[in-house]
Amino acid sequence: MPRRNQATAQTTPTTALPQSVPLPQTFKDGLPLPKMLVFDLDYTLWPFWVDTHVTPPLKATENGLKVKDKWGEGFGFYQDVGGVLEACRHKSIKIGAASRTHAPDLGREMLKLLRVPNSSISSPSTSAGSSTRAIEYFDYLQIFPGSKTTHFEKLQQASGLPYEEMLFFDDESRNRNVETLGVVMWLVRDGVTVEEVDAGVRSWRKRNKREKA
């Protein structure tokens, strides 16, 4: 995809979330939801390859909304990612990461340094300007080179959840091989958004015949 070869793609920052973040429509329609949402990292949660675009050491800037690397390049999440993570927490949906990056330590460091502004959906008493480290939203992290089916086998072992209760968001169609396990994968084209989450949840419901309350 051409966007991956453009140096400017990596500079897309997270913008501050308002104090009230809208939930995805599927999170409030009363129909079944997956028990776990799993996200790829590169070009799914952020618009860059962490193992090729980012050069350590890293430093958080803008109160953690962005991270700068050795060369001063800025990196952050796609715009809706913070709100999606907050919405999952609000609905008590487990969150996992499944990434085959060749720089797993750098990927984890990025999640530790980036912060998500807290919103009133998770806590009505949230103070203005407060935030949470992104890594704290993740219940399970599987970040290492290899097949995504291996990532999911480890996620299943760690969580005890059936594969059918997992919904996976990834930008590469080759990773549909996880569906041989029973996982539903939703292919995202330009990063995770609220709309992509809704589309993924509807696909999960249809695949698992869970379209009724």
From TrEMBL:
Coiled coil: none
PANTHER family, per the entry: MAGNESIUM-DEPENDENT PHOSPHATASE 1 (PTHR17901:SF14), MAGNESIUM-DEPENDENT PHOSPHATASE 1 MDP1 (PTHR17901)
Protein name: Magnesium-dependent phosphatase-1
Gene source species: Coniosporium apollinis
Organism classification: Eukaryota, Fungi, Dikarya, Ascomycota, Pezizomycotina
